[in-house]
Amino acid sequence: MKHHLTTSAPLNGSHKDRKTEPLWMKLTGIIFGSVLAAIGLELFLMPHGIVVGGITGLSAIFALSTELRLGLFLFLLNLPFIVLQRKYSGNSVSLLTFFGVLIISLGTFLLHPFPALLNEPLAAALLGGLSLGFGIGLALRFGSYLDSAEKAVSNLPFTRWITPEGLVMLFNCLVLIIAGFHFGFEQAIYSVTAYLLAYESIKLCLSGFRFYNQVQIESHHCVRIQEALFNYLNREADFIKQDSQDGEPDQIQLKCHRWEVSRLKAIVLNCDPDSEILILP
């Protein structure tokens, strides 16, 4: 048995089309996002040895392990992926990505001499993760990938046993595991906290700060699904199409908080593993 799950707003950069916006607006958004991300890194996370995932996290590990600056590693490690990205995405996206990476690299250089804004590592992980996530998300909304590996990897050919998203997640986990072994268990807890907050902040920024998603479900067991959603999520689902004579499944629709989506999927698939779930923006 198999089920189908689709979403109209993936995190691989296929967000709202901004090609019609003027260049000055894109550059302004990228600058603001890059500076916000640099603040999160240099004034919150790096002083406490807190590492997030991706190229940003790998750069932080190298910077914390050597006497070299974070900005240098951010620029050098992103550069090969920007070149690879240019091959598949064209000059426009690559130049905006290069501009964003340059700004965040310079920003971390300029902010490095300043002391940490917080002395408590947990608070620094929370605010640093939020600042980094919203900065990366804002830059993404205007066409710049501050962590260019994900976009470049998404264009590579893959086999059935791994997807671009799976490879990126595997790489992020590997970075966090390395940071945990290198800096200790307590730092690993702070790093995971900052990473999760940054990840959720990026999603929130890309979704336009909408906390609720419209969910459409197709199934032959809609009545059972309706009852389960009401009992376990306290959500009422409405029919939008009845069964036809050719045996097509019913459709139900409801609003769901974005943090409840994973639980909703589990409930629906437990009632009908062959159901189709569509997450609308």
Summary, kept brief:
This is YitT family protein. With 281 residues, the protein is of the alpha+beta class.
Structure description:
By secondary structure, the protein is of the alpha+beta class. It is built from ten helices and five strands. It has helices at residues 23-45, 54-65, 70-89, 91-111, 121-141, 149-154, 164-183, 185-206, 222-233, 261-271; strands at residues 4-7, 212-219, 238-241, 250-257, 276-280. α2 packs parallel to α7 (164-183), α7 runs antiparallel to α8 and α9 (222-233) packs antiparallel against α10 (261-271). The longest helix has 23 residues, at 23-45. The radius of gyration is 21 Å and the shape is globular. The model is unreliable at 1-17 (pLDDT under 50). The chain crosses the membrane at residues 23-46, 58-81, 93-111, 123-146, 167-185. This is YitT family protein. It comes from Paenibacillus brevis.
- Low-pLDDT stretches: 1-17
**Count of strand segments:** 5
> Percent range for helical residues?
55-70%
pLDDT averaged residue by residue: 83
The tally of helices reads 10
Terminus-to-terminus distance: 28 Å
Order of helices and strands: EHHHHHHHHEHEEHE
Shape: globular
Strand composition percent:
5-15%
List the helices and strands and how they pair.
Blueprint: E1 4-7, H1 23-45, H2 54-65, H3 70-89, H4 91-111, H5 121-141, H6 149-154, H7 164-183, H8 185-206, E2 212-219, H9 222-233, E3 238-241, E4 250-257, H10 261-271, E5 276-280
Parallel strand pairs: 1-5
Antiparallel strand pairs: 2-4, 2-5, 3-4
Helix pairs in contact: 1-4, 1-5, 2-3, 2-7, 3-4, 5-8, 7-8, 9-10
